[in-house]
Every structure is written in C-alpha cells, then in structure tokens.
Amino acid sequence: MGYPEELLAEDEQLLLHRHPHWKMLFLPALTFILATALAGFAGGLAWRSTEGTARDVLLIVVVVVWVAIVVWRCLAVVLRWKSTHFVVTDRRVLIRAGLITHTGIDIPMTRISSVQFRHGLFDRMLGTGTLIIDAASGDPLEYDDIPQVQKVHSLLYREVFESPRIDAGYRPHDPRAGYR
Q1: What is the C-alpha to C-alpha distance for residues 79 and 161, in angstroms, rounded to an integer?
Q2: Which H helix or E strand runs over 95?
Q3: pTM here?
Q4: 48, 75, 93, 144: which sits with the fewest CB atoms below 10 Å from its CB?
C-alpha cells in the first residue's frame, strides 16, 4: 500500500514509500514469544499449585502482566513502525511519524545538497542502512533503518542532481514547459 495520494500536492508524483526495515520488529517478536512462553509456564504452575480463588487471582495476574508486556514492548513498537513513513516524490522527501502526536519534515529536492548512506556488515546482510541527507537546514539529517538504502540513495541522487528542477522553469506536467 502506497502513501495516500491525496496528501500530495497537485501534479506531485510518488516515487517511493517505505516504512522502517523489518529488523525493527525482531525484538518485539522475540519478546512476544518469550513473554507468551513465560506466561504459559506461570499459568500452568499457578494451575497446578493452587486452588479456588487463589488460582483465579494468580491466573488473572499472569494474564494482566502478559498483556502489559505485549502492549508495552510489542504492540507499541509495531504501531510506531506502521505509522512511520519515508516518502520520496518528484518534488520533495517527506518523513512522517507518530500515531497520536504526528511529526513530519519535508525537504524540497532543490534544498538537498548531498545524499549519503551508511551501512555496516549486519545492515548489508539485511538490506538496510542509514540515509544521510544534507539540506540547507545546516546539520545533516540521518534516517536509520531505510530498506534498500542503496537504491533509495541512487533514486534521490538522480532526482536531485540529474533531473531538471522546477526552479529552472521546468514543469513536468505542462506540455509547453521548458527552460526559461
């Protein structure tokens, strides 16, 4: 599923839409498995060693602790992952994050002065890395866990340094367009 087209400007074309790499979800998945195994063990232990109301209370405590761990360490991370968007259009780079409190940054292509990427051995094995965008804002902006970071880097490089820019009088959807 792509980024919602209605959130883009008129005649703006979506080139790329990514969520952070799935490696962000590895620890929550492991936590879910371990928490479920421990809750099952604790529930079985409570079932075998107690009776009556004490058993019920212990089972409820086990379930409440399991739900709290799953919501805190798993569901929250999955929702954060799903609500984080890295978007490249023909005019700008957009980063959107947040479920309750939304944050975002838009970097016009014309303001980007350099595009770099960084990934170590483990990141290369997983096909991810950090994208570094140097814009007119001063400090370089770093975005971690970008899937296929080398392809994203190449796409941005082509869009920034090889495409005709709108500033130069080029209008991609205007048949009369050209350079002034």
Answers
A1: 35
A2: strand 92-97
A3: 0.75
A4: 48
